[in-house]
From TrEMBL, chain A:
<feature type="transmembrane region" description="Helical">
    <location>
        <begin position="16"/>
        <end position="42"/>
    </location>
</feature>
<feature type="transmembrane region" description="Helical">
    <location>
        <begin position="54"/>
        <end position="76"/>
    </location>
</feature>
<protein>
    <submittedName>
        <fullName>Uncharacterized protein</fullName>
    </submittedName>
</protein>
<feature type="transmembrane region" description="Helical">
    <location>
        <begin position="135"/>
        <end position="158"/>
    </location>
</feature>
<keyword id="KW-1133">Transmembrane helix</keyword>
<feature type="transmembrane region" description="Helical">
    <location>
        <begin position="165"/>
        <end position="190"/>
    </location>
</feature>
<keyword id="KW-0812">Transmembrane</keyword>
<keyword id="KW-0472">Membrane</keyword>
<feature type="transmembrane region" description="Helical">
    <location>
        <begin position="196"/>
        <end position="214"/>
    </location>
</feature>
UniProtKB/TrEMBL annotation, chain B:
<dbReference type="GO" id="GO:0016887">
    <property type="term" value="F:ATP hydrolysis activity"/>
</dbReference>
<keyword id="KW-0547">Nucleotide-binding</keyword>
<keyword id="KW-0067">ATP-binding</keyword>
<dbReference type="Pfam" id="PF00005">
    <property type="entry name" value="ABC_tran"/>
</dbReference>
<protein>
    <submittedName>
        <fullName>ABC transporter</fullName>
    </submittedName>
</protein>
<dbReference type="InterPro" id="IPR003439">
    <property type="entry name" value="ABC_transporter-like_ATP-bd"/>
</dbReference>
<dbReference type="InterPro" id="IPR027417">
    <property type="entry name" value="P-loop_NTPase"/>
</dbReference>
<dbReference type="GO" id="GO:0005524">
    <property type="term" value="F:ATP binding"/>
</dbReference>
<dbReference type="InterPro" id="IPR003593">
    <property type="entry name" value="AAA+_ATPase"/>
</dbReference>
Length: 225, 288
């Protein structure tokens, strides 16, 4: 029996699912870019433009963690285990996905060069097109923060129902401030450049919020009709 | 096995469970009865660690249950409202997950039960009918092989045949691997033969705890010609009456003394065991 059963389950199923999802996502991006190339000259990085959707997808996926917690408790696990093992899954899976995204940036560079297309990133990015370590760091930061914050939002709304919507306020602070650090959710007034310390503090803040919602949350189950 | 001490659960200003001291020993099948809102689901939830007590404690083999994986992995509660997995998950995937999460889970036995309930292995949870979902819940509960397995109205929506499979499987597995079951149900007559001991909760308090045979001894069913039965039960506490042509069966609360038994014998009346449901209705305040 694994010492980390929740993490083991998540790595064996959810991480694989997310990798496949991301693969399908970039396949779709490739198709869209190819079709666009028939009509207009390509000047922007398709991978970079599509990256704008990833933090929303990560938030949405993180949101589902609250339902997952209920399932874990029904199968005999505890909130405390979940609060340790789900963040572990988030950090590791975010790293895997960030590495995959970085690889896609590199692949795109080769394809654009071969096709003779111009490849420009969005202005607010904190990395250059070939600065792969920073690309990896920025996406890892963004994915981890969004997964954690989404999990907090889901837990807050499951626990406090309508009043849980108030959780949007601290969640927004975490996402926007961390976004200022990784440049992937960047607002004009908040841009600090990739900062590991800021990311770490925001992930810790997200975890603290998640802990406050989950630590003694009663199990409420909703079944589809 | 599992013990509560001054256990209390409140929802805001409402007290769902008044201070409760309970000790359930290992290796028995308990029936938990109560009217709607009696506190059955609340009690089961707190026993399983699904929620924290408002006051008092729940311990399993001496250790607190809430947030203690050593205890919660040995306790399984299957409720009628799901939570076993995501609606998009395949049944086999949920069973594989359960095998990872619960050390005692018997994956092979779960597969057998899927076949016995004729559940489609490749189906997703969300595509199952209400009765099939209940059967799947029962599958997970029995295959958990948890030292304390509780079913809260887990049979809802199951047809008679599926409920029979459930009862047979539970009994067979209990005999093969003795452990503790706690069954909460409104199907009292159908499920009471499974019970060794009955607990009745009423308005958040434990109203009664008795072995099934002793509970049945609290009443007598008197059957015979209607006029003779009516004369015989005059002055006794009548719980229920059924009539079929000239024959009448009356359920009487309380044991009969020797004089009454002699009278019944002389009048040719038949004395039989009482329906637990009739006793339950009487003990919890009668018909509305």
């Amino acid at each position: 029996m694994s010492r980390l059963p929740i993490a083991r389950y998540l790595f064996s199923s959810h991480t694989l699912f997310l990798i496949m999802f991301l693969g399908a996502f970039y396949l779709l991006v490739a198709v869209v870019v190819a079709v666009a190339a028939l009509a207009t000259p390509i000047t922007l990085s398709g991978v970079d433009v599509a990256g704008q959707a990833l933090h929303w997808l990560a938030l949405g996926y993180g949101y589902s963690a609250a339902t997952l917690l209920t399932t874990m408790i029904v199968h005999g696990r505890t909130r405390r285990e979940f609060l340790v093992q789900h963040p572990l899954f988030q950090v590791v899976t975010s790293a895997v996905l960030a590495a995959l995204i970085t690889g896609v940036y590199a692949l795109e560079a080769v394809v654009y060069r071969a096709a003779g297309w111009t490849r420009r990133l969005q202005d607010h990015r904190i990395f250059e097109a070939t600065d792969y370590p920073t690309i990896f760091g920025a996406y890892w930061s963004m994915l981890t923060v969004c997964l954690m914050t989404g999990a907090f939002l889901g837990a807050a709304i499951l626990r406090w129902e309508t009043a849980g919507a108030l959780a949007l306020l601290p969640a927004a602070v975490v996402v926007v401030y961390a976004g200022a650090a990784n440049g992937l959710f960047s607002l004009p007034f908040a841009r600090v450049g990739l900062d590991v310390a800021v990311t770490a503090v925001m992930v810790a803040a997200g975890w603290a919020l998640l802990w406050s919602a989950v630590r003694d949350m009663p199990v409420r189950i909703r079944v589809p009709a | 096995m599992i013990t509560t001490s001054a256990l209390q659960v409140r929802y805001g200003d409402t007290t769902a469970l008044h201070p409760l001291d309970l000790d359930l020993s290992a290796g028995r099948i308990y029936g938990l009865l109560g009217r709607n809102g009696a506190g059955k689901t609340t009690l089961l939830s707190v026993l399983a660690g699904f929620r924290a007590p408002s006051a008092g404690s729940v311990t399993f083999d001496g250790a607190p249950v809430f947030e203690n994986a050593a205890a919660t992995t040995r306790i399984c509660l299957i409720r009628d409202d799901g939570g076993l997995g995501d609606p998009t998950d395949k049944l086999t995937d949920i069973l594989d997950m359960a095998a990872i999460l619960r050390p005692t889970f018997d994956r092979a036995f779960a597969g057998e039960l899927l076949d016995r309930f004729a559940l489609p292995r490749r189906s997703t949870l969300g595509r199952l009918s209400r009765g099939q979902r209940s059967a799947f819940g029962v599958t997970v509960g029995l295959a958990s092989r948890a030292a304390l397995t509780m079913f809260d109205e887990a049979h809802l929506g199951m047809d008679a045949a599926a409920r029979k499979v459930f009862a047979d499987a539970l009994l067979a597995d209990y005999l093969a691997r003795p452990r503790t079951f706690l069954l909460s149900t409104h199907l009292i007559e159908e499920q009471s033969p499974l019970f060794e001991q009955v607990l009745i909760l009423h308005q958040g308090r434990l109203l009664l705890r008795e072995d099934l045979d002793d509970l049945r001894g609290r009443g007598v069913a008197v059957t015979g010609p209607a006029t003779l039965v009516d004369d015989f039960v005059s002055g006794l506490t009548v719980l229920a009456e059924r009539r079929l042509g000239p024959t009448k069966e009356v359920t009487v609360f309380g044991g009969l003394d020797d004089e009454h038994r002699r009278l019944a014998g002389r009048a040719g009346l038949t004395l039989g065991p009482v329906a637990v449901q009739d006793l339950f209705i009487h003990l919890t305040g009668g018909l509305p």
